[in-house]
Amino acid sequence: MATKDMSIGVLDSGVGGLTVLKELRRKLPAENFIFLGDTARAPYGVRSEEEIRKFVEQMLCFFDTQNVKLVVSACNTITTLGMKTLQKAHKFGLIGMSKGEKMVLSASKKHKIGLFATQFTVNSHMHQKAYNAIDSRVQVYGVPCTKFVPLVEAGKFGTPEMAAAIMEYTDAVKRAGVDVVILGCTHFPFLQREIQKSMGPNVQVIDPAAETATDVEHYLIEEGLYKMQGTGSTVINFTGDMEKGKKLVAYGMPGEQFTFNKLTLK
Ligand code: DGL
Fold it and tell me: What does DSSP assign to residue 6?
């Protein structure tokens, strides 16, 4: 049976999930987190569903061994697969990425939303369906930003290549006349400042990580699993290059303390 003192697992194809981990740590400072980024096999968003499901099952089997009360899919691509279909025999709870419905729908006056995501997530229409369940007027303009994930994984911030990719993708949604852009891939908040700058002051660029952290908080309270006392710790596992991974952790969460592990998934 799950108890308050058990850890919370957080998974992603790579370093993108760190942007969600950051919000979770801020919102739930007493909780212990175990992060797993499958950096050896990122990106997932250009792979087949069958392959992604196989990799996710391997990650969930790792969490079976970690005494976790809950696992957060800090990955939109994985979230499109449906948490119920991934749950199988795993005993912990499973929560996916929020589509940022509250923030997005209250920020948009034009009902025109730009979606920056992986090819897989854009094809799923997950965001369009979630917004239309609340407001049928909403139109989503999905842009598969396939260049972003490899550039973020390689830490190529502030490079001409990154600037060109940002220009290409922001131009695409500017033409559609959106007034909100949702970052539908957890790698993209690493670039939020630059994307916001390129979109200009009349478009709001939204990261749904805070809404995801609120969903997690509500789940823990409802299940009686909310840990309020103590100072939490975080272990970060990567399957790929550890030095590269550590640099990106330091870039995204400067000055914070973590324990690192290299992991092999089978
Ligand atoms: N960070 C992931 C997401 O939110 C996946 C990126 C990828 O591996 O393609 O979609």
Answer: S
